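Record type: monomer structure entry
Structure origin: computed from sequence
Chain ID: A
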Amino acid sequence: MEKKITLTAHRGYRQKYPENTMIAFRKALELDIDSIEMDVHMTKDYRIVVCHDAEIKRTTDRSGLIYHMTLDQVREADAGIKFGEEFKGEKIPTLDEFLELMATRPDIKVLLELKDYPEEIGDFAYASAGETLRLCREYGVFGKERLTIITFSAGLCAWLRTRYTKDDFSIHGFYPKTVMRGWDKDDPYKYYDEVCIFARGQKSREGMPQPQPESPVEAKERFDEFRLMGIKPCVYFNWNTNEEDYKLALERGAIGFTCDDAKTCGEILDRLGARKLK
């Protein structure tokens, strides 16, 4: 079966624009990409907003947990100023704003990460997921060819599969399974359609310092095993633009590439002749 190598812009065009902002998404759509990855949380007045962290301090001039804030409070924050003075005034987008943009580009898939976790905040996280998917359906960004749901929660994987069909969206999880919240209570692999294969030591859910892996690409056996499970093997290369690492990932079986510098990543994949059906 032919497999297309896919390229995803992580949090928009994050290399040159403030992450998860509308300008980052608009600029990402000018690149030769297959999909955009982004993250959502729900405010305490039940509005879905686009932001990676639950606490807005890292990327804005304000602080606070999104699920403790109203939409108006979240929108008071400046999401551009920390990236550069020229981006002053950028706001944390609502999911409506993002989906309205993506509805104009049916050729680009959305990889939407649910960042509210039932293992941490209980039923509020399920409500957040339900409202998020209602909006995706409303804007027509729905169906497995158009939408992939990403989560670090085994509980959310299970909840999604009881509420929706496989035709509604794909589920994208992570390796090793120990980075998944609730992995010890329910094996998350049985829910995956796609997997991001982190090199061991590359990612720690607890944020503790980890030994650096010998390579940012896991052993070929991991890619082979997920392929045999029928799960699309993917990699995340953050700022990495080492062409040899991309070549190694392709040789070991990576099909999906998610990158913070999607422009350079795409250029590397093109030089390697990767973005053709093979």
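Annotation 1: The first strand starts at residue 6 and ends at 10.
Annotation 2: DSSP finds nine helices and nine strands in the chain.
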